[in-house]
Amino acid sequence: MQNRTADEKGLIKVSIMYPYAEGKTFNMEYYETKHMPMVAAFLGSNLVKYTIDRGVASGIPNQPLPFMAIGTFYVKSLSEYQSAIGPNREAIRADFANYTNITPVILVSEVIK
């Protein structure tokens, strides 16, 4: 089992999860090359890193995937994240139509280990 680096402990992790459902679409190329870099630029020096996961299977054989994709931002400060996203929220939401018809589920958490 791979351990997280000590640098990640205590960071704020913002997970943007795109649930799978019949008839939903997701353009991974656009998300990877346009959307996530745009949001990352809004976060500036508060951003430590970001990751993108493509859903490939459920944990239970022959069941649909729970999520088509998950984008994750690791930031130093939640308040700085919120200050950066707030004024750009409409631009971020307007860009959704360029890559998906899914309403994402967002989880903000603290990295413990």
Automatic annotation (TrEMBL):
<dbReference type="GO" id="GO:0016491">
    <property type="term" value="F:oxidoreductase activity"/>
</dbReference>
<dbReference type="InterPro" id="IPR009799">
    <property type="entry name" value="EthD_dom"/>
</dbReference>
<dbReference type="Pfam" id="PF07110">
    <property type="entry name" value="EthD"/>
</dbReference>
<feature type="domain" description="EthD">
    <location>
        <begin position="29"/>
        <end position="100"/>
    </location>
</feature>
<protein>
    <submittedName>
        <fullName>Uncharacterized protein (TIGR02118 family)</fullName>
    </submittedName>
</protein>
<dbReference type="InterPro" id="IPR011008">
    <property type="entry name" value="Dimeric_a/b-barrel"/>
</dbReference>
